Amino acid sequence: MKRVELIASQLTEKETLHDVLARELQLPEWYGRNLDALYDCLTELKDVELVLIGWPDEGYLAKVRRVIVDAVWNNEHVTLRSID
Hints:
- The structure is a single chain.
- By secondary structure, this protein is of the alpha/beta class.
- It has one domain (about 1-84): Barstar-like (Barnase, Chain D, 2-Layer Sandwich), CATH 3.30.370.10.
- The chain is built from 3 helices and 3 strands.
- It has a 3-stranded parallel β-sheet with strand order 1-2-3, covered by helices on one side.
- β2 (about 50-55), α3 and β3 (about 80-84) form a beta-alpha-beta unit.
- α2 (about 35-40) packs parallel to α3.
- The longest helix is centred in the C-terminal third of the chain and has 15 residues, at about 60-75.
- The two termini are about 25 Å apart.
- The relative contact order is 0.22.
């Protein structure tokens, strides 16, 4: 299983966040770098453990976190851990 750690303090810009997600999760070329496309991609992943480190409860990262949680809920092949 591939482990991907996403550290909030390193993902302060929206563009950087989506670039890191695309690279680390090896998302397909069609990944549109928006929340809908992220959800679609996450529900198709296999054998991935996502670790969210220091993610806030507000702002854009909080929205991304909700998308990740929803996608993981609908994909038994991805696990999620959150570390404050």
